[in-house]
Amino acid sequence: xxxxxxxxxxxxxxxxxxxxxxxxxxxxxxxxxxxxxxxxxxxxxxxxxxxxxxxxxxxxxxxxxxxxxxxxxxxxxxxxxxxxxxxxxxxxxxxxxxxxxxxxxxxxxxxxxxxxxxxxxxxxxxxxxxxxxxxxxxxxxxxxxxxxxxxxxxxxxxxxxxxxxxxxxxxxxxxxxxxxxxxxxxxxxxxxxxxxxxxxxxxxxxxxxxxxxxxxxxxxxxxxxxxxxxxxxxxxxxxxxxxxxxxxxxxxxxxxxxxxxxxxxxxxxxxxxxxxxxxxxxxxxxxxxxxxxxxxxxxxxxxxxxxxxxxxxxxxxxxxxxxxxxxxxxxxxxxxxxxxxxxxxxxxx
Length: 349
Prior knowledge:
Elements: H1 19-26, H2 32-45, H3 49-57, H4 73-86, H5 90-98, H6 102-107, H7 114-127, H8 131-136, H9 141-150, H10 156-175, H11 178-182, H12 185-192, H13 198-211, H14 215-223, H15 227-233, H16 239-252, H17 256-264, H18 268-276, H19 284-304, H20 308-316, H21 318-326, H22 332-345
């Protein structure tokens, strides 16, 4: 008679609604291997939203705090993986934010285990999907900036951590740029703009765009001489990198120093080329990035037209912008931005 196949890496799971309480009881056992097996089985269950709901409403979440300080790094890593699976759903994210776990979880960004640190960053990044999550992590921004400074670029596994970290900083900075700016964010991120990884360049430019919304951010971009780097990124092979770089330029050229530096860099022909580029068959994500790139470029050109030298150059290229502003098949938002650009270029005192 054939026996049942039992996975030795998982704890036995009770039937029905008894499963979650039984596994959380196992987490209190002194043997690390029993805790690990229970965590593995809980991770399997958390793919079911009903199990997440049961865990949250049963008050089991707070029991994980003690596991953050477990002597076994595998237990700490698996605990963070469990939270990562739970925060895939809104109820899990809200529950974690309402719990007392966040301060203890945040301490694990300095954990000795790289796998644990990676899982922590996955959880933190998912929390920022909620505005309340980004707000809760604002106090953590200075520490995240220090972590970004210390990451080893050579380690392939660290690329994901840097991307997650930058994405988290982007979400937080869109809510409030001041903590990142106060942590020398513009200078630090400037070094990441030239990273060999397009994922890191993309996310670094996204954070930079969030920081350049406010006046201090715009000034810092100019003071740190980052506009030449950003103009180079307009030629990047990754369209999202291009779009984010154009977004930083769009915000920075609002101030006089930004206008002058961009005019000195002869950015107008580059922006016009991006605006005039014919659309190709692209995936949905690429189409959205292409639209953002064109809109940011048009808005940057509009701001540059406020400078006499910029207006003079753009008057020579007015037919191109007129085509985009009048085409019936043109996207509504792009047509509107093109019309605004034409109106500003044609303005007479």
